[in-house]
Amino acid sequence: MNLLDNFDCIVTIVNKGHSDPVVDASRKAGAEGGTIIFGRGTGIREVKSILGLAIDPEKEIVLTLVRSDISLRVMEAIVQAGKLEKPGTGISFIFPVKGVAGICHLNCPATDK
Question: Which of 48, 53, 83, 89 is deepest in the core (most CB within 10 A)?
Answer without folding.
Answer: 89
